[in-house]
Amino acid sequence: MRRRSTPTTRVNSTLDARDSVVWHGGNATDGQSYVRGGGLNPTDYTITLEKQVDLTGFTDAELRFAEMHDIAAGAGDVAKVSIVVGGVPTVLQSFSGSTSAYATIGEGTSNLKAYVNNNITIRFELVIKGQRTLGTPAAGGKGLFIDNVYVVGQ
User: What whole-number distance in Å separates Cα of residue 94 and Cα of residue 78?
Assistant: First the structure.
């Protein structure tokens, strides 16, 4: 959000005052990649992390987080950030391919303004596609790295 005379408020659960989450399938230096299902009837896997947030009483809000990813895009794998209201997800942003450094996402965007005065669920997902093969399936990437997750409202 742009600087205004009205202060912003970090929106956190009273039972969970954490302001960041780190979630990934490996790390940038451990050399481990996520595993892909293979065979004649391969299984797709989805790893999900979600948090409910009450935006009641706010006039503007945004989701801010730091993100880095290493995702095997050629295999159809994808990471995405969605907002769920009433069971219906809306994708805010998708990620595939690789980045080598964290990027700050969302600051100054008012990307949750359409959801003020609602209870929402923020959902981070990594979708790993199965690969139909008789041999070893293609390697996955290192995963999705998320840190410093904030919902800021006013």
Answer: 7
